[in-house]
Design a protein that fits this description.
CATH superfamily of the largest domain: ATPase, nucleotide binding domain
Low-confidence stretches: none
Helix content: 25-40%
CATH topology of the largest domain: Nucleotidyltransferase, domain 5
Strand content: 15-25%
Number of helices: 16
Mean pLDDT: 94
Distance between the termini: 57 Å
Strand order of the largest sheet: 17-18-16-15-21-22-23
Length: about 500
């Protein structure tokens, strides 16, 4: 039996997962990684430490799985996207990696026109932790460090370099540097908009396909990881793309919502046609597809906040799962009672990037009266998340569509049904787990066995329960959505 190892290097957690060649998950192992932050918007990682933790994670996974290293047919990496991972002529980190959620470059971008110009080329709003904005920031504040840089990498590319000694990047990350979304490469036009010297082009590595060979495990990496020297390592892709592939996102017009801490609402597109709403992100994906992605920055964090603030007197206060279960059981008994409260689920410090951009947006609970209690608040929270998903898809989803739902929140007893009612579509639950790692395992197989990626993904997509809209509740939520949208539009100028 042969196996694949997928590395999913998140912002604060590194996870390694091993699959057999039938894509059955055999085992996993994860390690927390400290992120260095401060009140000025810093978000950084010590690069060498990050590599050693990843190597340890691989080693312990192999040990835990009791699998011989020679049985591992291939390895691939996905990771937190963009940011700024720089190395010198001596192949050493120039400084700590700057992560995707670092906001220090914000102080140098005050011209909204720049953002509008970039959106027309990329279909993505400019995030301050993207690679090109950070490069611009480096030219202002870290000129000496900039002089030392030989290559600018991203998270997965750094780890692949440590495993193989080779340096490359892939199309999925280049598209959100930001780069030329249509041609999947760096853009001279974007450099000019940012007033960056094109000499910096040489700092970016060669672009390869995500399914191509990225190199082989070196002797030194073998000692640290217990991988067999010479094990092939594929190029891989960014985490949003990997998770979407793991969720079956390879066919044109497929709609997928992945709900965890954040909520990604994705439409797979067979062309790079950019929408005109100036919100969200647009990614190059595999098999000549693109992902139009509207992100609710706050997903299940809204539920956590409600529990922390309105369930303090509950005897189960320290058991959030039990509180959620009790709430959902009560909700089912009440048979979807109507609720007058409106909850805007923008509960984070970074504001909203979809379906509207407002970095000052805030969560709201509207319509509170003396009789309202924690049950009412939690109900409005569930409805608010569902309505925010409806808001993200807008008129790009209709009753003829299916919405595929994944992530931790998809396991809820009631949320998928509420979403089905709110959007008036069938909701199909994806039962595949560890979506990012699974997506990478598909890419490994495509390289190792020369399999057709589209057929592979479609064959191994697993569907669980299917929810159909409840007409009465759909009517109620549609009426509520009109109020929801008016409320958030009325607040945009005063946030």
């Amino acid at each position: 039996m042969k196996y694949y190892i997928a590395i999913d290097a998140g912002t604060s957690v590194i996870k390694t997962v091993i699959f057999n060649t039938n894509f059955k998950q055999i085992n996993s192992y994860s390690i927390k990684n400290p992120v260095l932050t401060d009140k000025f918007g810093k978000s950084e990682i010590e690069m060498e430490k990050f590599w050693f933790l990843t190597a340890k994670c691989i080693k312990l996974l192999i040990k835990k799985s009791k699998i011989q290293s020679q049985s591992i047919a291939g390895l691939g990496i996905t990771g937190n996207m963009v940011g700024f991972w720089s190395i010198s002529n001596k192949n050493k980190p120039v400084r700590n990696a700057i992560l995707w959620n670092d906001t220090r470059s914000r102080k140098i971008f005050t011209n909204q026109n720049i953002f509008d110009q970039i959106y027309k080329i990329t279909g993505s709003i400019v995030q301050y932790g993207c690679t090109i904005p950070i490069l611009k920031w480096m030219t202002k504040f870290e000129k000496e460090n900039l002089k030392k840089i030989k290559y600018i990498l991203t998270c997965k590319d750094w780890l692949r370099f440590k495993l193989t000694g080779n340096i490359n990047n892939d199309e999925t990350e280049v598209s959100v540097y930001p780069g030329d979304i249509k041609n999947r490469r760096l853009s001279i036009k974007i450099f000019k908009i940012f007033k960056l010297n094109t000499k910096y082009f040489k700092l970016f590595p060669e672009i390869k396909k995500s399914t191509e060979l990225g190199g082989y495990v070196t002797k030194s990496a073998s000692k640290l990881t217990k991988l067999k020297e010479g094990t092939p390592v594929i190029i891989g892709c960014g985490d949003v793309i990997a998770s979407t592939l793991g969720a079956g996102g390879i066919n044109h017009n497929k709609k997928i919502s992945i709900i965890g801490t954040t909520c990604h609402n994705i439409i797979v597109k067979s062309n790079p046609k950019i929408s005109k709403d100036n919100s969200g992100l647009f990614f190059a994906s595999l098999n000549n597809t693109w992902l139009e992605t509207k992100i609710n920055v706050a997903g299940t964090t809204n539920f956590d906040w409600v529990i922390n603030n309105f369930y303090k007197k509950s005897k189960n206060y320290f058991d959030k799962i039990k509180i959620i279960n009790n709430f959902e059981n009560k909700y089912l008994k009440n048979n979807y009672n109507e609720n007058s409260l409106i909850f805007l689920p923008y509960l984070n410090y970074g504001g909203s990037i979809s379906p509207f951009v407002n970095l000052n947006s805030k969560a709201e609970i509207f319509g509170i009266l003396p009789h309202h209690n924690n049950f009412d608040i939690m109900t409005s929270c569930y409805e608010g998340l569902a309505l925010s998903i409806k808001d993200c898809y807008g008129n790009k989803i209709n009753k003829k569509d299916n919405l595929y739902l994944a992530g931790g929140a998809s396991k809820s007893k009631i949320l998928p049904q509420i979403i089905s009612n709110a959007l008036n579509v069938k909701v199909k639950i994806l039962t595949n787990s560890e979506l990012g790692a699974l997506g990478i395992s598909f890419l490994i197989d495509s390289y190792v066995n020369k399999t057709n990626l589209k057929n592979l993904i479609n064959t191994h997509q697993k569907i669980g329960h299917i929810y159909t809209p409840n007409k009465k509740h759909s009517k109620y939520l549609n009426n509520k959505y009109q109020k929801y949208k008016k409320l958030r539009e009325s607040l945009e100028n005063i946030w």
